[in-house]
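Hi everyone, sorry if this is the wrong subforum. Our group has a chain we'd like a structural model of before ordering constructs, and none of us has done structure prediction before. Sequence below.
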Amino acid sequence: MYVEAAASARKAVTIPALRAMKTRGEKIAMLTCYDASFAAQIEAADVDVALVGDSLGMVVQGRNSTLPVTLDDMAYHTRLVARGLSATLLVADLPYMSYRDTAHARDAAARLLGECGAAMLKLEGAGWVCEIIADLVAREAPVCAHLGLTPQAVHRLGGYRVQGREADAAECLCNDALAVQAAGAELLVLEAVPAALAARISQALQIPVIGIGAGVECDGQVLVLYDMLGITPGKRPKFSKDFLTDAGSVANALKAYVAAVRAAEFPGAEHVY
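Answer:
Right subforum, don't worry. Here is the predicted structure as C-alpha cells:
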C-alpha cells in the first residue's frame, strides 16, 4: 500500500532552522527511521530530523554490521520514509564505499537527494572525507558529518568502542570536528565519546552537534528507533533508553523521547561515558 504523509500544521524543519535552534539553545530531537508507517509516527511526535541510517543492516536486515548495506538498500528505505514525512527533515546515510571518491559520492547524492526525497546526506569520518564533503556541498548537496564511533570503520576500531578517551585522541576528534565544519558540513553526529569532550566540541562548533552516547550538552540527540522502543534483539547500547515500557504505546514513547530531549533530561548520567 502506498502511504502519503498527512498534511501537517508544523512548519517544515530546514537546515537553517536547525542552526537557529542551536543559536537559541533549543535541543534537536532526531531518530532513525526505515519505513513509511514509523515515519508518520515520527512526524506526529514532532521529531525534528529523521535519519534513514545504514543501521538498518543490523536492526532490519539482521546483519552483524552496517558494512553489507548497499546504496540500493538505502534508496529503497529513503523512498519509504519520505512518503511518511511532510515537515520532519530527512537525512540519509551514504553506505560503506558509496563515497569512496567524488564521482561515486555525486552519483549516490543524485539518487538519495534527487530521486528518493532526502534533504541531507550523512558521511562518516574526516581526513580524506573532507574533500568529499566539500565537493558535495559545492554541488548543493547538504552534508551531515559523523565522528567518534563510526560503524563503517568497525574493523579498524577493533569493535564498537568509545572514542576520544585519551588526550591525543580527544584532540584529534576536536580537530576533525572543526575540519568537517570547514569543509561545509551543516550538522555533526557525534557517537560514543566522553560527555566532557562532546560538550567541548559542541561549544566550539557553529553547526549543531547531535549526540548519541555523547552526553546531554550536545545540541540534540539521536537514537536508533528500535533501541528506544526496546525491540532490538540482544543487548542494547549503554547510551540507549527504552521509552516504550512506561509509555504504553509507540506514539506516547516517541512523544516522551522528544520531551526528554527538549528538556535536557535525556541522556541521563547512566547513558554517558
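For your construct planning: Residues 15-271 form a domain with the TIM Barrel fold (CATH 3.20.20.60). Confidence is low (pLDDT under 50) at residues 1-7.
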